[in-house]
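<instruction>
Derive structure tokens from the sequence
<data>
Labelled lines for chain and fold:
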Amino acid sequence: MASQEAWIREPLILGEKTYHDISNDIAKPVEGRANKQWWIVFTIALITMLWGVGCIMYTIGVGIGTWGLNKTVGWAWDITNFVWWVGIGHAGTLISAVLLLFRQKWRMAINRSAEAMTIFAVICAALFPGIHMGRIWMAYWVLPLPNQFGSLWINFNSPLLWDVFAISTYFSVSLVFWYIGLIPDFATIRDRMARASRPIYHTIYAIMSFGWSGNARAWHRFEEISLVLAGLATPLVLSVHTIVSMDFATSVIPGWHTTIFPPYFVAGAIFSGFAMVQTLLLVMRKVVNLEEYITVNHVELMNKIIMLTGSIVGVAYITELFMSWYSGVEYEQYAFINRATGPYWWAYASMMSCNVISPQVFWFKGLRRNIWFSFILSIFVNIGMWFERFVIIVTSLHRDYLPSSWSMFYPSWVDIGIFIGTLGIFFTLFLLYARTFPALPIAEVKSILKSSGAQYKK
């Protein structure tokens, strides 16, 4: 049973809400018609998604010669996007799992959307290695399946294969964790659909709720399995991006071959993931009218975490510079000088200003609690983290050991179209989710009403 909180803590649920109001407010986007804001955002997302799908189909049909790659820069736009999307996928399950383990009540407003973000971001990430192969119909070769091609077998020593195992495991656990949390709310929608005499929807939600009865034994098992999955998901978050970093760290390219990459990549992933959660929450609270449940207090708490993780990323950048100087290896030192002063200096400057400098403004409370400023700065962080991956990949490759092979990379319109298309896919899936599934956990929000609700804290 929840206990009363100290009055100095801000309420997490605004307004004179009752248990019935909570059910109505959260179920309303599922049961009713979409508002004008939702349709505007959804139309934009759908158009960009269709553009991206067209570019992907063109790439599959013609080949990756349509991209801006060359013999020097073999990894560029696509792998930058892959690592960026994987990073975004990290924070979703991490927020939900860690905050559940630490019993943080403000988790209730964001955990469902954060978990959904993980699923959709990993789907977007998985597109890039597939189309980068050039022959996507051979993608099953990365799986350890018996084959009929003689001695051909996947290379278990390759970190690219470790990616497959790590990301698919993380995706599976995240999906189960997300779905388990949805079951009680599916049952609530099921019962409401039955009372509203909507048999088709009632049947659909009845199937998805797996016969949830809501008795004490079911709740006990629900809470036990939620804790077990949270305990499994937390170390997986650390392992996945560590393994992604191994793609680079196990090579001999200057700027990649470094032991700082695993913690560096994990910190960056959490930073970018939190920024994307912030972006989504600020959009969702508006388009599905949940401003009394995703409050300014929630926004401020998220901004504090963005500021903390941004500082950790800044320390990682400085440590990386120190290690290159202290190594005494001229190739390593040149790689970092080239990043800051070479032809891609603008990408390095964008990375540093967006990731290191901009989050520090959240030391000011007025800016932390400003909705529009928080939204703009979360976009800045997302841009900065994309540039971080671009700097690591492209600037390290375009000038290697042989000056005769130095070359510049310029993205083609297909490169840009695919990236924008994945943004469209991501937001289209998220908006459909916000209209189909309860965006907040109804039962869990009710559990904090009497301890954190505005009317009970007076």
